[in-house]
Specification:
Layout: H1 11-33, E1 36-42, H2 48-59, E2 65-71, H3 76-82, E3 87-92, H4 101-111, E4 118-122, H5 129-132, E5 139-145, H6 152-155, H7 157-161, E6 165-169, H8 181-191, E7 196-199, H9 208-223
Parallel strand pairs: 1-4, 1-5, 2-3, 2-4, 5-6, 6-7
């Protein structure tokens, strides 16, 4: 068979276009119901779950919070979140390294999202795939940890460009690593001039009040739209 007779289908384009439509529909539904959805992303081990535990403990008396933990396998993180007293469910991706809008909707329907003020999706630990798929979230957040280095924004530009807030976690160990906070912020700004950048430590609590204030402000603004 001649090469020019082979039918080529642009699957990647159609998948993204369909997902974008689903994401916008989901976002519209969430807005109508006044439910804020945060999509939290990071590489494995950056501190998503420990950050969420502190967040749940700090805000659970003010807001009804539901958490969806996405992993290829295991339910370790869900059990840790559930111990805070907030609702939590586990989403297994079946080997996929991200969640898209359709998968997010399934998780929201399962947790009963209209019962909550804020739902948080802890996406699969990965700095590539999750950034490529709009989940329908109200806002995107990511965590960069100090041990990963201050040059991550240069290596993973899309992840940093799609985020509304970047938490620079594990600041308590910064003195033990070759990590320059100013340079890290500068690199993030090369990819995203608008993102809120908050240095934090989920272990010691450093900077967490600023993070709680940002999230609370976003939830309030979303509900008032």
């Amino acid at each position: 068979m001649k090469t020019d007779s082979v039918r080529v289908i642009e699957i990647k384009k159609s998948v993204y276009e369909n997902n974008d439509r689903e994401a916008e529909l989901l976002r519209k539904e969430l807005r109508e119901k006044g439910v804020f959805l945060l999509n939290l992303m990071s590489s494995p081990g950056a501190g998503k779950t420990s950050t969420l535990i502190r967040t749940a403990d700090a805000l659970k008396e003010r807001y009804k919070i539901g958490v969806m933990e996405a992993d290829i396998d295991s339910d370790v993180d869900t059990k840790a979140i559930a111990r805070t007293g907030v609702a939590a469910i586990q989403l297994h991706t079946g080997g996929m390294c991200h969640l898209d809008a359709g998968m997010t909707r399934q998780g929201l329907d399962e947790i009963g999202y209209d019962l909550f003020d804020c739902c948080i999706l802890e996406n699969v630990g990965n700095l590539v795939c999750p950034a490529e798929f709009d989940t329908g979230a109200s806002k995107n957040a990511m965590i960069l940890s100090v041990p990963e280095g201050d040059d991550k924004a240069l290596k993973y530009p899309l992840m940093f460009s799609v985020c509304d807030v970047v938490l620079i976690n594990k600041m308590d160990v910064a003195p033990y690593f070759d990590f320059d906070l100013d340079r890290c912020v500068e690199n993030i700004r090369l990819r995203n001039t608008d993102a809120k950048i908050i240095p934090v430590s989920a272990k010691t609590g450093e900077g967490m009040d600023e993070w709680f204030a940002w999230l609370s402000g976003q939830i309030k603004a979303w509900k008032e739209r």
